[in-house]
């Protein structure tokens, strides 16, 4: 099967829309060929993961588009970079070291991308709608767009996400197509005593387990209680995209393509059945922490993926609680989108927070770039994704816990936890 | 000496000694671009160098940031001379295409049966623009 292009595709490929568009189309066509797509389709938006610096090639690639007069053809948001452009004083890198990473972020803006610099673009005005075809990078954003919103993207990443944005096209393959979106494996929660509590930890644990169980197949999860907020679905997807390569999940009665189990399965039988028991959840959560309760901590890191407005409300409530109104002994870093930060600032919610040792981090994430002042001890987090990657990326020990436990631990400077 | 027909995903010609990996390797988190060595602690070939080798493996793996890391290794001259895969991999294909476009350095990526190939075999890869490629294998034991 060969790739069939439209006259418009050929026109882009042959340089009639400029050098940059031709370059993007050449790469996109080769990619489409490698994945076996037989055509390209129109997209209505893109989210670019390429603004995180991986070396000179990252910059050379984008500068080629800038020099060729490139512009994105669809609304395009940017994922995190290596620098907090709003709070540059937080980045513990020399200025010369920062320069290429900074330029990479700016160069994307010159191509017409929106300087959102967030891994949660779905929390902004650029949230796609059900059924929208998009080309997104960043694993947590991909799985959220597909699963929670019902928009359609496959797993894109460096270079190719920008080629999609510049051409406004994506290969017609994978999760863009109906036939690949139905669930192939069934994951069932078994032996949980009703009513099952919708704790954050349950959604993180189920995400970690499903990521491993599903492999590259789409799972449908049965038996989860309704989430308290979509933040719990965000956490589930991010965890599953860390432990595995989860790009789409269904939850019966919760996500838009799974009103019933049968509809999620597309009327077919599941290829495989997995069961999650309470003991599996406990074990998955225990494995996330590399230190025991009571261990001293150097910091708390929240907001991976970026903290939503709703999560901020929970944090501010926890901080205002009479038992925790003292200044935390260790800093609480909160990764969040600049759009969310602006909203909170305008409403005065952030006044005096830094003095209280609560540090908002935008445009990047505390596991990607040197921000933490001390990393010789343990760090506590409410994020399954942070707990999964930080020991490898930063060499830190981690303790995972619910948001309120993280706040309580920051107050005491050691891991304290209410029972899961 | 035996030639195998292959599918070309990124064009170029290369000769070199085969480095046959029993497991797929993710370039992101798997390769040190400064040295070309495998740094993934869970990989059986930890510590080996991919530089100038014809890298043979069943498939690509892992993060889409591997495109960047692979392209960066080609730019620095620490990358492999070619990659021979049993199944096509879009991430590695894109890395090779971008490096070729930006720096004029080719690292052919081809797909064919990798059965019987062994580390140290002398391999020649010729990958043309029409999707056709030829991989010639001279087993290590038969070399003069």
Explain the overall architecture:
The complex is a heterodimer of chains A (420) and B (144). By secondary structure, chain A is α/β, with parallel strands linked by helices. In chain A, the strands form 4 sheets. A 5-stranded parallel sheet of chain A has the order 12-11-10-13-14, sandwiched between helices. In chain A, strand 2, helix 3 and strand 3 form a beta-alpha-beta unit. In chain A, helix 2 packs across helix 3, helix 7 packs parallel to helix 8 and helix 7 packs across helix 10. Chain B is globular and about 35 Å long. Chain B has a single domain, classed as Glucose Oxidase, domain 1 (3-Layer(bba) Sandwich). With 144 residues, chain B is of the alpha/beta class. Chain B is 17% helix and 32% strand. In chain B, helix 1 packs parallel to helix 2. Chains A and B meet through helix 2 and helix 3 of A and helix 1 and helix 2 of B.
Q: Pick out the low-confidence regions of chain B.
A: none
SS-based structural class of chain B? alpha/beta
CATH fold-level topology of the largest domain in chain A: Aconitase, domain 3
* Main sheet makeup of chain A: 5 strands, parallel
Q: How many helical stretches of chain B?
A: 2
The total count of strands of chain B amounts to 9
**Which sequence of SSEs, written as H and E, runs from N to C of chain B?**
EEEEEHEHEEE
CATH superfamily of chain B: Phosphohistidine domain
Most extensive contact: A-B, 28 and 29 residues
Could you say which overall geometry of chain A the principal axes of the C-alpha atoms support?
globular
Quick structural gist:
Chain A is an alpha/beta fold and 420 residues long.
Main traits of this protein?
heterodimer; A: 420 residues; alpha/beta; Aconitase, domain 3; Aconitase, Domain 2; 5-stranded parallel sheet; 4-stranded parallel sheet; 14 helices; B: 144 residues; Glucose Oxidase, domain 1; 2 helices
């Amino acid at each position: 099967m060969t790739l069939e292009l439209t006259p418009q595709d050929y026109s882009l490929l042959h340089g009639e829309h400029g050098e940059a568009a031709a370059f993007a189309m050449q790469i996109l066509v080769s990619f489409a060929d490698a994945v076996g797509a037989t055509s390209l389709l129109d997209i209505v938006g893109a989210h670019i993961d390429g603004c995180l610096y991986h070396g000179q090639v990252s910059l050379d690639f984008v500068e080629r588009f800038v020099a060729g007069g490139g512009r994105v053809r669809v609304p395009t948001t940017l994922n995190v970079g290596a620098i907090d452009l709003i709070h540059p004083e937080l980045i513990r890198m020399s200025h010369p070291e920062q320069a290429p990473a900074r330029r990479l972020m700016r160069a994307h803006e010159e191509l017409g991308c929106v300087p959102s610099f967030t891994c949660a673009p779905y929390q902004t005005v650029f949230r796609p709608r059900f059924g929208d075809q998009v080309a997104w990078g960043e694993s947590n954003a991909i799985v959220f767009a597909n699963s929670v919103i019902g928009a359609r993207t496959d797993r894109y990443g460096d270079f190719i996400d920008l080629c999609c944005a510049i051409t406004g096209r994506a290969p017609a393959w994978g999760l863009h197509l109906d036939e690949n979106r139905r669930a192939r494996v069934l994951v069932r929660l078994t032996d949980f005593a009703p009513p099952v509590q919708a704790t954050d930890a349950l959604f993180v644990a189920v995400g970690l387990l499903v990521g491993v169980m599903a492999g590259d197949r789409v799972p449908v999860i049965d038996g989860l209680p309704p989430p308290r907020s979509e933040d719990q679905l965000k956490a589930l997807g991010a965890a599953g995209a860390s432990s595995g390569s989860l790009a789409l999940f269904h939850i019966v009665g919760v996500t838009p393509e799974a009103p019933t189990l049968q509809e999620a399965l597309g009327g077919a039988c599941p290829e495989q059945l997995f069961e999650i028991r309470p003991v599996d959840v406990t074990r998955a959560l225990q494995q996330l922490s590399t230190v025991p309760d009571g261990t001293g901590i150097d910091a708390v890191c929240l907001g991976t993926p970026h903290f939503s407005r709703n999560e901020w409300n929970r944090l501010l409530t926890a901080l205002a609680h009479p038992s925790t109104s003292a200044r935390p002994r260790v800093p609480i870093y909160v990764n969040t989108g600049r759009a969310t930060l602006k909203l909170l600032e305008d409403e005065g919610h952030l006044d005096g927070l830094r003095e209280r040792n609560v540090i908002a981090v935008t445009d990047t994430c505390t596991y990607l770039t040197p921000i933490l002042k001390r990393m010789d001890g343990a760090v506590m987090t409410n994020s399954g994704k942070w707990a999964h990657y930080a020991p490898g990326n930063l060499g830190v020990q981690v303790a995972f816990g619910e948001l309120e436990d993280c706040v309580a631990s920051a107050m005491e400077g050691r891991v304290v936890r209410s029972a899961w | 000496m035996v030639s195998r027909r292959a599918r070309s995903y990124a064009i170029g010609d290369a000769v070199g000694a085969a480095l046959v990996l029993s497991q797929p390797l993710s370039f992101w988190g798997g390769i040190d671009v400064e040295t070309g060595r495998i740094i993934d602690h869970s990989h059986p070939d930890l510590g080996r160098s991919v530089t100038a080798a014809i890298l043979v493996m069943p498939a690509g793996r892992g993060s889409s940031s591997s495109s960047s890391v692979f392209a960066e290794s080609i730019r620095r001259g620490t990358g492999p001379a070619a990659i021979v895969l049993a199944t096509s991999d879009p991430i590695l294909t894109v890395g090779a295409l971008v490096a070729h476009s930006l720096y004029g350095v080719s690292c052919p990526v081809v797909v064919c049966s990798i059965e019987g190939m062994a580390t140290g075999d002398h391999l020649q890869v010729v990958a043309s623009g029409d999707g056709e490629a030829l991989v010639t294998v001279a087993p290590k034991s038969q070399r003069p």
